[in-house]
Design goal:
It is a single chain. With 535 residues, this protein is of the alpha/beta class. It has eleven helices and 22 strands. Strands 1, 14, 15, 16, 17, 18, 19, 20, 21 and 22 form a ten-stranded mixed β-sheet that branches. The chain has an eight-stranded parallel beta barrel with strand order 2-3-4-5-6-9-10-11, surrounded by six helices. Strands 7-8 form a two-stranded antiparallel sheet. Strand 7 and strand 8 form a beta hairpin. The two termini are 45 Å apart.
């Protein structure tokens, strides 16, 4: 295993050699282009009705501050009373074009104090931060009601755009949402651990039914009282593979939540997301057939299987003994993880979080390989992915799509290295699209490794082709299978040109056409016209 110093040095070298970070100084390839052929079978649907590409959205998962206190403000959403800032923020979300959101929340946000001691009787009058009598009963929890108002404001925007929203609950909830910073939900063991035992080793709550009652309560409120159509489901726990009683605890939560939702009459409205972390490893050992094991225990209460992937790595790093890298995007992700999970679960499969730890987040290749993984996902039956992360501007998260103004005011602006490449990937493959069979032959390097990848989506007569050329050489691709008189817009980003979505020449694909791809490029050919391609 590499030492920490060797590991850091490797990242520096790889980043220096291969990054090309949105800079005009990047080297231009003088090598001849790769050549190959792509065939699109426009009537052969292989993955119907996908959800689409999207993001993780930081809300009340990590940093819990008072929304009126600008000094400790986490910079994740605008201040509540700043109309100009909110307009800018909404414009950034709109242009980014994400179709899917994993909305990071904490259960104590809406239940900082136990509503009552009856986990099957909701006190909707004054028991939750969204209840009409809550502010009067709990004036000390004003921050919680402000968080609910902020949640509505954000969901209102997503409702307009028909975005598929999944609440991602982050565990037992932060005590900072509770009076005196004491989380009423925690078990005595968790309260007394005093940091000596990591709380995420077990669920750490006193009563599972109280826990699931709270999860059911927020879904009842959002679907039945607020009537949000965009809110589709909820994940009960982020990355639960560290739970010491993995199968017993998780199946207990899923089945209890299912019962709560049935009791409230909303089971058909709420999808329960299962696993939402590793599907090949957990605290009890190797995860071989872990999805199948969990399905036997709680399959009737798991509607979607979610996997987090930071372990796939670029092909050029194959064989290196690097911690947390268990294969390549093509080998490990698809064959060892995705296909077995889809087969074992017989449920929709999504990438709840996607990235790659072996690529510096400040490296353009990070986006290039996320695009490649998205292609592999859709071509193999996966329904959605959530890029990590849209708006968490904390210094420990350098992969966020938004950054602060240079004057450090609370105005979000695009992180250009990340924002535009991700927008290009997300906004033209629409929620509800069908993925049709398309494949590339040729375009291989000197080691006979494929370097050009393609997925094709259709919806309502519109067609979008997402292409990645991960070679430092250009590529020429003969394209067959699309016979249309409509113009396809060509849009792309490269290491030298990622500060906006670049517009190429319109093309008409009506036979054996040749498509040219720039080195290290993400390219979209689409009949869908969004409007302006830069902010």
């Amino acid at each position: 295993m590499l030492s920490r110093i060797q590991w850091l040095c490797l990242l520096v070298v790889v980043g220096f050699v291969a990054s090309g970070v949105c800079s005009e100084s990047s080297a231009k390839s003088t090598q001849p282009p790769l050549t190959g052929e792509a065939v699109v079978s426009i009537r052969n649907i292989i993955n119907p009705k996908i959800i689409g590409g999207g993001v993780n959205f930081a809300f009340s998962d990590y940093t819990y501050t008072h929304l009126t206190d600008g000094y400790t403000w986490a910079q994740q959403i605008p201040l509540m009373d700043d109309k100009v800032e909110w307009a800018n923020f909404n414009n950034l979300m709109d242009f980014a074009g994400f179709q899917f959101v994993r909305f990071e929340v904490g259960v104590t946000q809406w239940e900082p104090v136990n509503d009552n001691d009856k986990p099957r009787e909701l006190n909707l009058n004054d028991g939750f931060a969204f209840s009409p009598g809550f502010s009067t009963k709990h004036p000390e929890c004003k921050n919680n009601t402000m968080y609910m108002d902020a949640m509505y404001r954000i969901l209102d925007e997503w409702e307009k755009r028909n975005i598929y929203v999944m609440l991602g609950n982050w565990g037992a909830g932060p005590g900072t949402f509770c009076p005196n910073n004491e989380n009423w939900m925690l078990s005595e063991e968790a309260k007394l651990s005093n940091g000596k035992v990591k709380r995420h080793r077990w669920l750490g709550v006193e009563n599972i039914d109280e826990y699931t009652e709270s999860l059911a309560a927020i879904m009842y409120h959002l679907t039945n009282e607020k009537h949000y159509q965009c809110v589709k489901g909820i994940s009960v726990y982020n990355e639960p593979e560290q739970l010491s009683n993995y199968y017993g605890t998780l199946s207990g939560i899923y089945n209890s939540l299912g019962e709560q939702l049935v009791r409230l009459g909303i089971r058909d409205k709420v999808k329960i997301i299962g696993l939402d972390g590793s599907v090949f490893w957990n605290h009890e050992g190797s995860g071989d057939h872990s999805v199948a094991k969990l399905m036997k225990l709680a399959g009737q209460n798991i509607d979607i299987v979610s996997f987090h992937d930071y372990y796939s790595r670029p092909e050029y790093m194959k064989g290196l003994n690097i911690p947390l890298a268990h294969g390549t995007i093509r080998d490990s992700m698809v064959n060892s993880v995705m296909l077995p999970a889809i087969k074992e679960s017989k449920r929709p499969f999504i990438l709840g979080e996607v990235g790659t730890q072996v690529c510096d987040p400040g490296n353009y290749l990070y986006r290039l390989y996320v695009a490649e993984e998205a292609i592999q996902l859709f071509n193999n039956g996966g329904k959605a992915y959530g890029y990590w992360v849209f708006n968490n501007t904390h210094k420990d998260h350098p992969w966020h799509m938004l950054v602060m103004d240079p004057d450090n005011k609370r105005h979000f602006i695009p992180n250009k290295l990340i924002y535009y490449p991700m927008a290009l990937m997300m906004k033209y493959i629409k929620n509800g699209s069908d993925i049709v069979n398309s494949h590339v032959t040729g375009c291989v390097d000197e080691n006979n490794q494929p370097r050009v990848f393609l997925t094709t989506a259709i919806k309502g007569g519109d067609i979008t082709l997402l292409l990645v050329n991960d070679s430092e050489r250009p590529a020429k691709l003969k394209l067959d299978g699309i016979n249309s008189t409509r113009k396809f817009r060509t849009l792309y980003v490269t290491p030298d040109a990622c500060e906006k979505i670049n517009i190429g020449e319109d093309v008409i694909l009506n036979g054996h056409d040749t498509v040219s791809l720039k080195p290290l490029s993400i390219t979209v050919l689409t009949t869908y016209r969004y409007g302006n391609e830069t902010l």
